[in-house]
Design goal:
The protein is of the alpha+beta class. The chain is built from five helices and 16 strands. The chain has a single domain, classed as 2,3-Dihydroxybiphenyl 1,2-Dioxygenase, domain 1 (Roll).
Length: about 300
């Protein structure tokens, strides 16, 4: 199968306005889609990424008002890492200090330099300096090209046992790049820049609890539905229990739970976020799944304004 790297990462938040402000105003990402949760249409589904929300750049959130804080532990993605230009850490440190956003200098792993940042719901975010990332960051959010986030670098999965999940990732085309104690780094060859997955063994830690700040699922990119069908066949043969393809309007998705407990998704790169909005207008209008369009008036009354 041909996995390109990450497609998106979806997480939970406690408030739509604070979530939107952090990712668009503090991190300078573009909100590329404002829609709702397919299963809970009274809740936003917000997408933030580069200019077009290209695969490998988009973090998405379900902001459930009043949701409790997530608990850190195993069986979950514990950190999301972004790629920034070499030398940009100092600029970001000054910006985050001015905005009173908690951060610290990053010391590794594998000699990485950058910043560890804490999001509004306690989510762990890394800004990692990467020398060979040719992707262009979004500059319309007040961050110039010399410092802009280019997209994901990768994710860290914290697990009681790493071997079964490593086997799944290797079946998906990942290979071990480096090992440092309890951390194993896997990389996809010829990927989209969002090509790293770190597995950290923590056998004595409790299970993570889902809540605000926790990652709901990690999605991997394939080019189209034919590639997704091939991935589904191969993963089924490897023993994964996978859903049928589901139309998510902007991509087709299949899901399966990994042996370590993390929910994985395989998502198509097509049709993309500009299927129902012009590129220059992405993320401005409330877009509803077809089955919820009849509820638009009620949904608009319920949803918290996020641009005020």
């Amino acid at each position: 199968m041909k996995i390109n790297g990450l497609h998106h990462v979806t997480a939970l938040a406690s408030g739509a306005r604070s979530n939107n402000a952090f990712y668009t105003q503090a991190l300078g990402l573009r909100r590329v889609k404002k829609t709702v949760n397919f299963d809970a249409p009274d809740t936003y589904h917000l997408y933030y990424g580069d200019e077009r929300g290209r695969p490998g750049t988009a973090i998405t959130y379900f902001p459930f008002a009043g949701i409790g804080q997530g608990g850190k532990g195993t069986g979950a993605a514990s950190e999301v890492a972004y790629s920034i230009p070499v030398g940009a850490s100092g600029w970001w440190a000054e910006r985050l200090t001015t905005l009173e956003i908690p951060h610290a200098r990053r010391e590794g792993p594998f000699g990485e330099t950058g910043l560890d940042v804490t999001g509004p719901d306690g989510e762990a975010i890394a800004l990692v300096e990467v020398a060979d990332d040719a992707r262009e960051g979004w500059t319309g959010g007040g961050v110039d090209a010399a410092h802009a986030i280019r997209g994901f670098r990768g994710v860290t999965l914290r697990l009681r046992e790493t071997a079964p999940t490593q086997a799944i990732l290797e079946a998906m085309g990942y290979a071990v790049e480096a090992v440092d104690g309890a951390r194993t780094r896997l990389k996809i060859a010829g990927g989209n820049g969002a090509d790293l997955v770190d597995l950290v063994a923590a056998p004595n830690e409790p299970r993570a609890a889902e809540g605000a700040g926790s990652v709901h699922h990690v999605a991997f990119s394939v080019s189209d539905r034919a590639a997704q069908d091939e991935a589904r066949r191969a993963l089924t043969e490897a023993g994964a229990q996978i859903t049928p393809p589901i139309d998510r309007d902007y991509f087709w998705a299949i899901y399966f739970r990994t042996p370590g407990g993390v929910l994985f998704e395989i998502a198509t790169d097509e049709p993309g976020f500009d299927r129902d909005e012009a590129p220059e207008a992405l993320g401005t209008a409330l877009k509803l799944p077809r089955q919820h369009e009849r509820l638009r008036t009620r949904i608009e009354e319920i949803l918290e304004p996020i641009d005020a």
